[in-house]
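Records of this kind hold a single protein each, on a pair of labelled lines. Below, a sample record shows both lines together.
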Amino acid sequence: MGLSLSELKEVARTMCMPAFTGGQIAKWLYTRHISLIDEMTDISKENREKLKAEYSVGSLAPLECMKSSDGTLKYLFPTDSGKYVETVYIPEKERATLCVSSQVGCKMNCLFCQTGKQGFDGNLTAKDIINQIYSLPERDSLTNIVFMGQGEPMDNLDNVLKATQILTSGYGYAWSPKRITVSSVGILKPLKRFLDESECHVAISLHTPIHEQRAMLMPAERGATVEEIVSLLRNYDFTHQRRLSFEYIVFGGLNDTMAHARELVKLLNGLDCRINLIRYHKIPDVDLKEADEKKMETMRDYLTKHGIYTTIRASRGQDISAACGLLSTARKEAEAER
């Protein structure tokens, strides 16, 4: 699992098997989701024995699951490196979205994010990313995937691109790129590469249009300002298939004023995009406040009136702390005490 078609063909070649065997393996993996090489019944027994001597399918079942009263499920998955990441399954009427992780911990250290408090503990491989889908009990009901879990996708771009290639290629899951959204705080060089090499939707973690304030919330602003990020995005076409969105966590008394709304209109003027306003839910030891619902509605209405389609995202999984970082942090701390 996690190997591309060309890599699977190379596996077949180096083991003196027909080249088409790589395609057979890909079908067994990404279409039929087998768990054992012996299940690849259109490959000769001799060749299956060769494969078993060197490889396994590699699927790893989740270790824990927490279920919210609203149906949201949070899974804790192991990685090949012996660490843990969280994956959140969000069912909604005719949709089912999976929020996947791309790193163990995160380097970005955003003030409001529990994952950032863990520090950085390694990149996920393409296999680790795909396993969050492959081994998900609800896999067959998925309609959308968002890379909005633990980690900064652009900081692990090679593996994120490889995973999305497997998800969208004909030999893999054959999903439309429109079903996948990849988020970023906005690291310019890898973001540009992602925009050039992928057709998946893009979501930028914005949270305030004001440089000094964003730098306080998100240290990454010191490396690439919000103005530079938006300037890069203006070079790409988001008027057709690909969608651009901005994630905006609303903090009470900090970024919820009409002055912020006006600055957002100025910053994003003429850019085909949408804004998702998100309620903040407190995490330990962080002095940020939840926003007033009326202020969020006023901000939404102003932005929409001025040409930026804006929604208030419904909170999900609040009773299980579905925001990533808390479950894996608890597991890590428990193991450290052993």
